[in-house]
Amino acid sequence: MAQIISQGKDSMLASDHDHDRDLLLSNTNINRSSLGKQYSRFDAQVRALQCDFDTYCSEPEDKEDYEKWKSRGFVIDEKKEEIERFISENRVIREIYGEVVPNKVDDESFWSRFFCRIFKLNQAEEAGRALLVKR
Predict the structure, then answer these.
(1) Contact, 59 vs 19, CB < 8 A?
(2) Each residue's pLDDT tens digit, 70-108
(3) How far apart are the C-alpha atoms of 35 and 60, rounded to whole Å?
(4) Are 10 and 71 in contact (CB under 8 A)?
(5) Which of 79, 82, 85, 84 is nearest to 108 (CA)?
(6) 60 — phi, psi (to 5°)?
(7) d(Cα 65, Cα 52) in Å, to the nearest integer?
(8) Global pTM?
(9) Pick from 129, 33, 20, 13: nearest CA to 89
């Protein structure tokens, strides 16, 4: 009897884990139905960034690059529409935002860290494409 209960418990835990993973993937800005194509490696990296609390709560590793990026023109007021779209369309970002702002991080730091990391991800993707073209 104990073995049957244990197997049922393991099955339920595995099911919950699968559901949580599916929920994270289905509630991102980039999903298969909206793009009409398979996810790319870049899309997976964007989703991973969006779902990671460190994206929003931790200082970027290269603080000097981060400050340069901010000084080149990051103005949160210019991103209001994009931010509203992220909050309304992306459940994961909305939930993380609700949990950490303003208790752990202020609004501007939350968004500037996010947009900086997306910028860096785009830079890396473009550099990778340039290398492929060069070959």
Answers:
(1) no
(2) 999 899 999 999 999 999 999 999 999 999 999 999 999
(3) 30
(4) no
(5) 79
(6) -60, 150
(7) 20
(8) 0.67
(9) 33
Residues 77, 111: Cα–Cα separation, whole Å = 11
Give the CA distances from residue 56 to residues 10, 24, 48, 60, in Å, rounded to whole numbers and listed in that order.
Answer: 33, 17, 12, 9
With H, G, I as helix, E, B as strand and everything else as coil, classify residue 65.
helix
Our CA angle for 53, 91, 89, nearest 5°, is 125
User: Per the structure block, which two tokens stand in for 134?
Assistant: 């060069």
How far apart are alpha carbons 80 and 35 in whole angstroms? 24
Which of these, 67, 49, 47, 45, lies nearest to 112 by C-alpha position?
Answer: 67
Q: What angle do CA 88, 43, 14 make, to 5 degrees?
A: 80
The DSSP letter of residue 90 is -
